[in-house]
Amino acid sequence: MARFDFSADVVVDVAALGGGADALFELGLMYCAGRDVEMNLVEAHKYFNLAAMRGNEEAKAYRLEISREMSKKEIAAAQKSAREWLKLH
Q: Does the residue 47 lie in any domain?
């Protein structure tokens, strides 16, 4: 699959509109790497979780990988944030 570089604004706009799996995955990558945003594993986990729920298989692997660096409390916060995001979108 081809990888496209999107600006943070474009990805956030697409994700905010209900976001496809790829846009949500890109947001996860941005937060995971600190690209155009401050690095935040809780946010990265949230977006990888949302992307995985929408069918992005790669997001599942990334979510698992970063969860190994996170506390149970951080993972719970990411999951709660993902549920809240789903209620709004």
A: yes
Mind listing the pLDDT tens digit for each residue in 41-68?
999 999 999 999 999 999 999 999 999 9
Do residues 78 and 67 lie in contact, with contact meaning Cβ atoms separated by under 8 Å?
no
Domain count, the chain: 1
Per-residue exposure over 26-37, b if at least 16 CB sit within 10 Å of its own CB, e if not: bbbbbbbeeeeb
Q: Based on the number of CB atoms within 10 Å of its own CB, is 60 exposed (0-12), middle (13-18) or buried (19 or more)?
A: middle
- Domain around 21: 8-88
pTM of the predicted model as reported, rounded to 2 decimal places: 0.81
